[in-house]
Design a protein that fits this description.
Belongs to the AB hydrolase superfamily. AB hydrolase 2 family. The protein is of the alpha/beta class. It has six helices and seven strands, in the order ββαβαβαβαβαβα. It has one domain: Alpha/Beta hydrolase fold, catalytic domain (Rossmann fold).
Length: about 210
């Protein structure tokens, strides 16, 4: 797994005393995708939008956190590798804890990073993503740590397999302090209502 490209990171402002939120885009996108969300979210955070380390298969443009061989394939090992790359990028920032906001693949990687190092994160936001299968080193600790997690998804999302949604629905309540929202008619996207709900969730984390 390649390292994250530090020169590709978009910062809302130089790192300082504000709490940090790292934005993780979805498959075939890049660091510019979620960066625009910062204008609708609390200004009390610094936002850093990172670029995933892999190129998706030609002719798909953009970047990916792990490979997908067909819509039904979600290899937990790939999700873990993407999460480890994120944790390695965070390491030079020291012991400061951060929040993660990820969409689709970025949401899966965000949850997996929490499962690898529960104490690193103040909260995690999973937009149209899922919890990977299998076990992870921090799963047992998460049962008591109860990291705040916001999970938003559309009822008409054709991308995330039903099995992945069912697994996430069963797994998250026991491993997080969960706030879950299902948006009627929403496909694989983020709605204005979801952004408003996300902003309220983030305000409560301050």
């Amino acid at each position: 797994m390649p390292s994250l490209d530090d020169t590709a990171v978009l910062w809302s402002e130089p790192p300082g005393d504000k709490p940090l939120i790292v934005l993780l885009h979805g498959y075939g996108s890049d660091e510019r995708d979620l960066f625009s969300l910062r204008t609708k979210l609390p200004t009390a955070f610094t936002y850093a939008s990172v670029r995933a380390p892999l190129d998706p298969p030609f002719p798909m443009s953009g970047y990916s956190w792990y490979s997908i061989e067909g819509l039904e394939s979600r290899d937990p090992a790939g999700v873990t590798a993407g999460a480890q790359a994120l944790l390695e990028w965070l390491a030079p920032l020291g012991e400061r804890r951060v929040g993660l906001v990820g969409f689709s693949q970025g949401g899966a990687v965000s949850l997996q990073a929490m499962r690898l190092d529960p104490g690193r994160f103040d909260f995690v936001v999973n937009l149209s993503g899922y919890a990977a299968g299998g076990s992870a080193p921090g799963d047992e600790a998460l049962k008591s740590a109860k990291v705040p997690v916001f999970w938003g998804r559309g009822s008409a999302d054709p991308v995330i397999p039903v099995e992945a949604v069912e697994h996430t629905t069963a797994w998250l309540p026991d491993h997080s302090d969960l706030v879950g929202r299902v948006y009627p008619g929403l496909a694989h996207a983020v709605s204005e209502q979801e952004i408003s709900d996300l902003a309220r969730f983030l305000e409560k984390q301050l």
